[in-house]
Design brief:
There is one protein chain. The protein is α/β, with parallel strands linked by helices. Helix content is about 45%, strand content about 10%. It contains ten helices and six strands. A six-stranded parallel beta sheet has the order 3-2-1-4-5-6, sandwiched between helices. The longest helix is centred in the N-terminal third of the chain and has 17 residues. The protein starts with a strand and ends with a helix.
């Protein structure tokens, strides 16, 4: 029986991975970084620190310079999450909440973006725990954020926890934490050839999760 559901944010509650992807692409083109589509695809679900560590691994000063510019671009282009929310996923979170199933959020995004997203989509008061990638030493695909999340619920065994993810690195992080993972399939995950093979189940509509995991609740 599932007692705790841990949600990723980008690509799960909101269709923001697509927006991030296009913004990154424009940023790199504008600043004359020559990146392939494959390189851009691998950034999906990642965070600013890891993206720039991969792009400029050796020169710390140069990396910090571009990381600052990149973050300023993100803050200057905050998205309207309400306009790109997945209404069915929002309803699913609310359904779980009404059934007294514990819900948590574990996102690689900065806390600023998480708070804006939850305010935009009306879920600020719904989650029992919210963790940002800024609050762990190592972000996804490392398991830290999921391990820290489940530490907040010591009474719930791992086999009663479900993680909902979309990206390869997010799925990897949850599996390394020893958790069951449901991968959300979208037209965007197909477009960027997202590898979701490590997930325990894939779904398109949240009703599939209701039937698979919550029939007994």
């Amino acid at each position: 029986m599932i007692q705790l559901v841990i949600f990723d944010m980008d690509g799960v509650l909101v269709d923001s991975e697509r927006v991030h992807y296009e913004r990154r692409k424009r940023f790199f083109q504008r600043h004359q970084f020559q990146l392939t589509d494959q390189q851009l695809d691998k950034m999906v679900g990642s965070n600013a620190n890891d993206i720039w560590q991969a792009l400029i691994p050796a020169d710390t000063e140069k990396r910090e310079h571009w990381l600052t510019i990149y973050r300023e671009d993100v803050r200057a282009n905050l998205m309207d999450y309400q306009a790109i929310c997945d209404a069915q996923m929002i309803q699913f979170v609310q359904w779980l909440h009404q059934k007294a199933i514990t819900c948590a959020l574990a996102s690689s995004a900065p806390r600023l973006l998480i708070e804006k997203c939850l305010a935009d989509i009306g879920l600020t008061q719904t989650f029992d725990a919210i963790l940002s990638g800024e609050e762990v030493a190592f972000n996804k695909p490392n398991p830290d954020i999921y391990l820290k999340t489940i530490e907040k619920f010591p009474q719930i065994p791992k086999h009663n926890i479900l993680v909902i993810e979309d990206s390869t690195i997010g799925i990897e992080a949850a599996k390394k934490a020893g958790l069951t993972v449901a991968a959300k399939e979208t037209s965007f995950t197909k477009k960027v050839n997202m590898d979701q093979s490590q997930a325990d189940i894939r779904f398109i509509q949240p009703e599939e999760l209701e039937h698979h995991y919550f029939q007994e609740n």
